[in-house]
C-alpha cells in the first residue's frame, strides 16, 4: 500500500520513526506531504537545534536592516504590524526583516521559549546593548521577558543606557523597570549612562525618579565619573555633564577613600577652563580640601596641568595654600621636579622664601632637585641681568652642571 493512501495521522506517526533527513526527503515527494511535514520539521528543528533558528533571526547584522520612521510618538508596542496605522516601521518592502519575523513566529509556535534563560542571557541583553531596535521589538512582540536579569544582576535598563535608542529606554521605563536597580557591583543605570556619556539617558532616568546622587560599588556618583573622564573631550561629554547638572546633584559629594570632590577629579585629568567654569558656576568651593588637605590647586600642580593652575588662580585660588603636611603648591612642584610648573607658580607670585626642605633654602632646593634651568630663571629677572640672592658657590654649581649634595653644595670627589 502506498503512503499516499494513508491518513495524515498515520503519516505523522510514521514520521516519528524517521530521522530528519528521511522526513525532509519524504516532504519533498509531493505537495500534500510538504504541507503536512514541513511544520513537523520546524518543530523538530526548534527542539533539537539549540536555538539555531533564533540565532539566524536575531543575528547582529545591522547592514541588512532598514526602516522608515513614521512618528516618534507612536505606541511602542504596536511595532511592525504591517497593517497597523500607527506602526513605527514599514516592513512591507524589507524581505530580510519579514523573514526574521516569520522565523521567530514559527520558532515560538513550534516550542521555542523566548523567556528561557538562554534567550534572556544570550540574545535579549546583547540586542539591547547593541541598540538593535528592530530585533528588540521582534523579541518583545513574541513574548521575551522584559524583566529578565543577566547573571551579574543587570536589568535591560543597564544595557539600554549604553546605546543610543531612546525608544527602547522609554519602553523599559514604561514597563516598570526600576530606574535605581543595582547590578552585582552596585552600579545603577544612571551611573552607567554617565560612564557612556549618554545625555538622553541621563535626562530620561532623572525625569523618571533616578537618584542623581546614587553611588556605584566604588562609592562614586555619576558626577564623579563625568568629572574624571580624561581629555580630550569625547563626543557628548559636555552635553552629558550639563544634563546631569540640570538635576542639581550634590556638588560636594566626596569619594570614600580620598575624600575628593568633582573639582579635585576634574583638574586631575582635563581641567580646562570650560569644565572648571561649569563646576564653579554650580557653587563648588575652589578651596575645598580632600582627606589629605589638598585643594584642587594642589591636584592641578601634582599632575602638571599648567592651564588648570592658571585658571584656578584667575578664579581666586590661594597660591599660599598648604596641605596637611605643610607642603605649599610651589614645594609640590619642586618635589615633582617639574620646572615648567615651578616657573609658572613663580610667575604667578608664589613666595620662594617659604620653601624649605630639611632646612635647605629654596634656591639650593632647586639645585638638589636638579631643576637647573628653573634656578637660572629665578635668578635672572626680565628687567635686567641682575643676579638675586645667589652666592658664588651656587653659581659655580649651576654653571658646572655638578649635582649638589644634601646641603645644596657639590658632592666632594
Automatic annotation (TrEMBL):
InterPro entries cross-referenced by the UniProt entry: Ankyrin_rpt, Ankyrin_rpt-contain_sf, F-box-like_dom_sf, F-box_dom
Name this protein carries in UniProt: F-box domain-containing protein
Presence of the UniProt keyword Cytoplasm in the record: no
Region (Disordered) location: 390-413
Entry keyword annotation includes Transport: no
Keywords assigned by UniProt, alphabetized: ANK repeat, Repeat
ANK repeat copies, ranges: 152-184, 185-217, 258-291, 292-324, 325-357
Residue intervals of the F-box domain: 1-45
PANTHER family named among the record's database cross-references: ANKYRIN REPEAT AND PROTEIN KINASE DOMAIN-CONTAINING PROTEIN, ANKYRIN REPEAT-CONTAINING PROTEIN-RELATED
Pfam families linked to this entry: Ank_2, F-box-like
